[in-house]
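Why does this matter for the project? Reviewers at the last site visit asked to see concrete outputs rather than summary tables. In response, this paragraph embeds two records directly. Each consists of the residue sequence and, immediately after it, the corresponding structure tokens. Nothing has been edited or filtered.
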Amino acid sequence: MKRKFLVLLCAISVIFSGCSIVEEYGRGTLENKEIKKSDEMSPILEDEDDMAETDVDETNEDTGAEVDDSSDVKSKETAKAEVETPKKDETATNESKEDKKSEVQPKKEIEEKKSEDSKSDDKSEVENKKSEDKKADKKSDEKNNENKDTNKAADKNADKKESVDIVSSKNDDPPAEPVKNEEPVKKESGDYSSLSNEKAGWWFNPKKAGGNGKSTIPEKTANLLNKYNGIWQAKTDEKVMYLTFDEGYEYNNNTAKILDTLKAKGVKAAFFVTGAYVKSNLDLVNRMANEGHLVCNHSVNHLNQVEAIKNPKKLEDDIAGLQTLYKEKTGNNLASFLRPPEGVYSERTLKFINDMGYRPVFWSFAYKDWLRDNQPDKKFAIEKITGQFHPGSVLLLHAVSDTNAEILGEIIDQAVNMGYRFGSLYEL
């Protein structure tokens, strides 16, 4: 009996155990289905508590079974697991949101970067345009400078050409203002017999070539010139020289060439003319005066004055006659300077020249340039003339010299480069 009872208990135990297994199996299957269902729904669920409540209600409705205490415990554990599972799903959902956000963020960054790149491109384009404008301006300035340099070079070449290739001045050039000379005033003739008429030819000791100092003359001669207001060299240390030409007759159109050079260089000179020259070359004489040069007395007939003074009337006519002729031909007066023909003089002739209203003019430089068929070499002439430049020098050149006409421009240029200027005899 006892044995049967044990067998019955075992059977009952087995039955209850089987029911529990079946219940657990069924529950697990339903749970799996609910989990799967919740996984499919999780993307649209937003609240964690709603998700947990929904899962619990659906589980109870599907089973429709009454559960014991242990089943309640297990049901609570299962519900807890189900709640935890949606949490994982929510995490996945949040991760998905983060992924979407992370996807949106790079897009925003890309758009911002594109915007910045666009702004940078615009800025770069503006800067490039400014740079191009600056380059264009610079190029324009350079072109203007090139044009200026070209104009300067052209002016320089024109000046150079003017100094080298001297051409006759045009007739339509406006005339320069002539020098206004007062008519020489003759003093009353006195007794000249008391004065020595001893003949003297002009002589001076030239300045040493390349050295310092000036030309010199004997003291007796210097005293005589001072007494009769004569000129031969300025008493000055200033670098100034006085350019004079003797014009007895015209040769080879040299005077026109000389005047062209003087005009081109802006230098004024004194021209000592004879009566024959005024009659034969009135156009050149007028040009001398009109271009601001001094036209001075070299007598009508170029007489030896020491011989002519033996007949004072003869010498008077030879001197005063040129003033009369010149005024008749030009309407102007000669400058009040006279150069004794051949450089011959005496105390008597110097006094007579003064009484005729003139100052006698000699020179502190001259060289052998008056022989037409025996002209000095150009190089020699330039070295000779420039080597004896000195302050206050009165230079005598003959206009019949081809050499003088050709080298005059270079002579003037060298004088200016050495610091000299050319003055007027009226300064002395």
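We now turn to the second protein, recorded in exactly the same manner.
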Amino acid sequence: MESEPEPAAWDIVFESTVRADRLRFEEEPSTEVRFPGAGERDSMSRSERSRLPRPVEAGRDYDDVTVAYRLATRITGTPEGGLEGAGSGGQQAS
């Protein structure tokens, strides 16, 4: 498995941690992570679970669970339209 770039290498990082005393799924969840938009980019998403198996079972209670989620992305090419500095409101530095 490739090593993850350092945090400073990402343009956007979203991290969240959710804890629950009890969690129950009435049906098996269907999840999808997409990175739509223009321009070439390098993106990743990852979750770490505590006391929550993969996959979860519908109708089963899970106690004292934690899910930590991280999503990160960065532009790797020239922004669509060829403008440099598009990440700063689309204006070029003078």
